[in-house]
Specification:
Pathway: Porphyrin-containing compound metabolism; protoporphyrin-IX biosynthesis; coproporphyrinogen-III from 5-aminolevulinate: step 1/4
Low-confidence stretches: none
Cofactor: Zn(2+)
Shape: globular
CATH architecture: Alpha-Beta Barrel
CATH topology: TIM Barrel
Oligomer: single chain
Mean pLDDT: 95
Number of strands: 12
Distance between the termini: 36 Å
Structural class: alpha/beta
InterPro entries: ALAD, Aldolase_TIM
Family: Belongs to the ALAD family.
Protein name: Delta-aminolevulinic acid dehydratase
Strand content: 15-25%
Order of helices and strands: HEEEHEHEEEHEHEHHEHEHHEH
Length: 325
């Protein structure tokens, strides 16, 4: 009986590693940082075991760990009690995120700063845009988002990441940045952001749960793959330099399809709920946490992601750079 013995190349660790088709590197990871507008804040979050909320005056403690881990960059989210209907704190030059951007760039030019652009952390109602009655005013919202993006670019952000899912925001932000001389500042939008229950831990940490209703009228139905590809195509046509897809684990098919269809870098966001499930199962002894982390991140990259936003970034980097699994 003749058959192919594919197992020949799996017999030893050295053979297996030689023929790995997918490899992870710490520089491909982007670590989420929650920037609090208070003082002397370095608070571990119970919703996200191992993740801290930090104020600018204690930011260096987090940066030292990030630098040591040799990861590619950080993505910043503001945490503030200074909220109003318009989310006006988001555009302030002395805002927590703006201060953090300047601090990080002073600390090291090697840490890429991705600035998340949205209003949900700054509005009193918790929605991602400006309200007109109980609905989002899309066009007014993109005007405000453009001002936030400009503020972050002026502070020194390397990359602008609108996460609001408003129509036309990429074109509006590109026009705003270009008109102020930031023609080389990339825009990497959340192009396929599904309305997911897996964002719950993030919303608790960022204090950004909507005060009424939900976000299903602007975030995407997770049932729709073709619509996700249309969203990505629209953002590319407006000038997106790369795209973000989230949640990662429930969007592997979308990541793969986008990789096949579009000649553009793709970042997958391994979101807070995905992280929390692994940490919870690890605490209960139900799985080998380190092995599962690397397996998950490898699967995301295998699907087509060029980089991964993940709360696992620091521990995954330590695993990859410190020892073999």
């Amino acid at each position: 009986m003749e058959f192919k013995r594919l197992r020949r190349l799996r017999q030893t660790k050295a053979l297996r590693e030689l023929f790995y088709e997918t490899r992870l590197y710490s520089k491909e990871f982007i670590f989420p940082l929650f920037i609090d507008d208070g003082n002397n804040v370095f608070e571990r979050m119970p919703q996200l075991d191992g993740i801290v909320k930090v104020s600018v005056d204690r930011l260096q403690e987090a940066l030292d760990e990030i630098k040591k881990a040799d990861i590619g960059g950080v993505i910043l989210f503001g945490v503030t009690s200074q909220k109003d209907e318009m989310g006006s704190y988001a555009t302030r030059d002395d805002g927590a995120v703006q201060q953090a951007i300047r601090k990080i760039k002073e600390y090291s030019e090697d840490i890429l700063v991705f600035a998340d652009v949205c209003l949900c952390e700054y509005t009193s109602h918790g929605h991602c845009g400006i309200l007109k009655g109980d609905k989002i005013d899309n066009d007014k919202t993109i005007e405000v988002l453009s001002e936030i993006a400009l503020s972050y670019a002026k502070a020194g952000a390397d990359i602008i990441c609108p996460s609001d899912m408003m129509d036309g925001r990429v074109a509006a932000i590109r026009k705003k940045l270009d008109s102020h001389g930031f023609v080389y500042t990339p825009i990497i939008p959340y192009s396929a952001k599904f309305a997911s229950s897996l964002y719950a831990p993030f919303r608790d940490v960022a204090n950004s749960r909507p005060a009424f209703g939900d976000r299903k009228s602007y975030q995407m139905p997770y049932q729709n793959k073709r619509e996700a590809l249309r969203e990505i195509e629209a953002d590319i046509s407006e000038g997106a330099d790369a795209v973000i897809i989230k949640p990662a684990l429930t969007s592997l098919d979308v990541i793969s399809a986008a990789k096949e269809k579009f000649n553009i870098p793709i970042i997958a966001y391994n979101v807070s709920g995905e992280y929390a499930m692994v940490k919870s199962a690890g605490k209960l002894g139900l799985l080998n946490e380190e092995e599962v982390i690397i397996e998950i991140l490898t699967a995301i990259k295998r699907a087509g992601a060029d980089a991964i936003i993940t709360y696992h970034a620091l521990e995954a980097a330590r695993i990859l750079n410190g020892k073999e699994l």
